[in-house]
Every structure is written in C-alpha cells, then in structure tokens.
Write a structure and sequence with these properties.
Helices cover 38% and strands 18% of the residues. By secondary structure, it is of the alpha/beta class. The strands form four sheets. The protein has a seven-stranded parallel beta sheet, sandwiched between helices. The chain has a three-stranded mixed beta sheet with strand order 12-9-14. It starts with a strand and ends in a 7-residue tail after the last helix. The site of uridine-5'-diphosphate has 15 residues, from helix 6 and strand 8.
C-alpha cells in the first residue's frame, strides 16, 4: 500500500513512519516543518514540504502519488497553548482537516486514520474510560480534535469516506535505536522535563498539584509507548483496507501512574536523585485519566509490547541523553 503520512516529521508521526517502512509499506510524508523536524524525516520515505491548509499543495500530492490511505498527524497539540490561542487550533486542526478532506474526496481517497486524544473526554465520568463515555472537552485542543472526528463522520455519510480516530492517552518513550524521539519547543510534557534534570539542563522538576484525590495526591496518567501507538496506526489502516467501518479507539495501557511514581521510576532508570519541587496545580488537569483499550485489542488486535514504565522511561532516556537539544545541533 502507498500511505500518505501528514505530519510524518513530528514525534508520533516519525515513529509511525519508521514502523511502516519496517513493515515494507511505501510511505509518502507531507509536513510543514513548523513543529516537525527535517532530521526526523525517514530517508526511505518520499518527502513533500507543505501545509495542509494549502489546497493546491494537498492536491499536488494526491495528483503525484497514487495514495491508498492517509494517516493524519498534522495538528497542533498543546493544551496550554490552545487555551491562550484557540483560533490557531481552529485554523490548523479544523480548517486544515477540512481542506484535506475536500482534496481526498476530490481524488477518490477514502481511508483515513488520525490522531485524536483523551482530551476529547474532558473530566472523565468513570475510570477506566471507554469510547462510549461522555465527550465534553475542557480545552480548545480537545474540542478541535472532537470536531475533527465529527467532520470525518459527516464527510463519510456524504461521500463514503471511512475513518479511524485513535484517542491517545499519554504518548511517551522513543524508538529503540535512540535516533528519533520527542523534541518539543517549548517542552511541556512530564517525562522529557524530568529527564532534563539528569541531563544537566534544569535543577529540578515541578510537581503540578499534590492535593488531588489520588493515592499520593498527584495526577494519574496512562503512559503509552510511542512505538505501540505507531503499531496501532498500522493495524487501523489494515482494518480500513479490509473493509472495516468508521470507528473510534482508545489507546493506553490501562494502568495509571502518579506524577510521583513517574519521577521515582526516572530516578531508578537514570541513577540521578532528580529533585522535585511541589508546585500549585496546572489549570485544566483532570485528576485521573486511564484508558480502557479493550476495544482496540479486540477489534484491531492491538497488543502494546512496551507496557512497563521503566522500559518506557529507559527508551526516552536513551534518546534524550544522546540528543540533549533534540534535533538541534
Ligand atoms: N506535570 C507535572 N510537572 C511538569 C509537567 C507535567 O507535574 O513539569 C504533570 C501534569 O500536571 C499531568 C502529568 O504530569 O498531571 C502529565 O502531563 P503532560 O503535560 O506530560 O501530559 P498531559 O497529561 O497534559 O497530556
């Protein structure tokens, strides 16, 4: 199959491209390199630099390449930024997807797998979260992702397009080679920030809130290895290629760790004391987010292989230790 990966130079995109290439698929990447990195573009994939909001650009890719399916990662994904600059999220995530879908319909490309998020649920009604639970996002990031799901649904009704939305919980870890990994600027995610301490880039890590209703008072999250997420995209493309109907799946390990447990595990992995400073809550953080991924296991045959938090952090550490400045020289 020839698969177009939009946002293939980003964190989850580049790991998915790597797994696709290893599985022998033909891969075309399009990325505007706004948050993606040219160094993360897999040399075995064909690369187009451009923006999905540019209809001419998107049309030209579909005209040059006979694409069987699209995997769509090209979006902004920072909760905090979405609160201060919501229209950036409506523009890139929603308008960008609208242009993409128009072009797909015009070119007869009818299968798409895309990144959705646990943020579509907002404050969970129960734990673990299942796909049929209430979706009431508490920030524009989650809201635009939920709207993307709906846009796909109605485009499907009108034009026969089929989609799979993958609602990720906390993506983390890095490729086993240590050559690609997480590189955000500014960095806001817990594990990369923790690892900046043993890397000598910060004195301590902040714990955002110690008075949550959890076993040690800090937030609980479901951390899922990026390579396991990547595998789910490949299974989702196969599912659609085999005629599967449009669908939504949670992707997580079904196990929650507190912020304090994550820091403790990082101390073990790195052998560094990693001082932590108890700080006020961060706005908009639910106390607990844990996925039920039973549906993805059953329907897609997904089976996460890197479930141990120690292994996840060790893989992230291998990347960050050797690339303290991410892809920058
Ligand atoms: N967190 C923290 N200190 C930090 C960054 C994050 O305590 O410096 C907490 C955050 O409040 C959340 C968890 O770590 O409970 C995971 O946050 P992250 O930003 O990595 O992912 P999110 O859950 O927001 O998608």
């Amino acid at each position: 199959m020839k698969i177009l990966v939009l946002g293939g130079a980003g964190y989850i995109g580049s790991h998915t491209v790597s797994e696709l290439v290893d599985a022998g698929e033909e891969v075309v990447i399009a990325d505007n390199l706004e948050t993606g990195h040219i160094e993360a573009v897999n040399p075995k994939a064909k690369f187009y630099e451009g923006d999905i909001r540019n209809r001419e650009f998107v049309d030209s890719v579909f005209e040059n390449e006979k694409i069987d399916a699209v995997i769509h990662f090209a979006a902004n994904s920072l909760v905090g930024e979405s609160m201060t600059n919501p229209l950036k999220y409506y523009d890139n995530n929603l308008y960008g997807t609208k242009v993409l879908l128009e072009s797909m319909v015009a070119h007869g490309v009818d299968k798409i797998v895309f990144s959705s998020t646990a943020a579509t649920y907002g404050e969970p009604e129960s734990i673990p979260i299942v796909e049929t639970d209430r979706t009431e996002p508490t920030n524009p990031y989650g809201e635009t992702k939920l709207s993307m799901e709906k846009m796909m649904k109605w485009t499907g009704v009108a034009h026969g397009l089929r989609y799979v939305a993958l609602r990720y919980f906390n993506a983390c870890g890095a490729h086993e080679s240590g050559e690609i990994g997480e590189a955000h600027s500014p960095e806001t995610h817990l594990i990369p920030l923790i690892l900046q301490v043993p890397n000598g880039q910060r004195e301590s890590v902040s714990i955002f809130g110690t008075d949550y209703d959890t076993k040690d008072g800090t937030c609980v999250r479901d951390y899922i290895h990026v390579t396991d997420l990547a595998q789910a995209h490949i299974l989702a493309v196969k599912y659609l290629a085999d005629g599967g109907e449009s669908n939504v799946f949670n992707l997580g390990n079904g196990v929650g760790f507190t912020v304090k447990e994550v820091i403790e595990t990082a101390r073990k992995v790195t052998g560094h004391p990693i001082p932590a400073v108890e700080s006020p809550r961060r706005g908009g953080d639910p106390a607990k987010l844990i996925a039920s991924s039973e549906k993805a296991r059953k329907v897609l045959g997904w089976n996460p292989e890197h479930a141990s938090l120690e292994e996840i952090i060790a893989s992230a550490w291998k990347w960050h230790k050797n690339h303290p400045n991410g892809y920058a020289k």
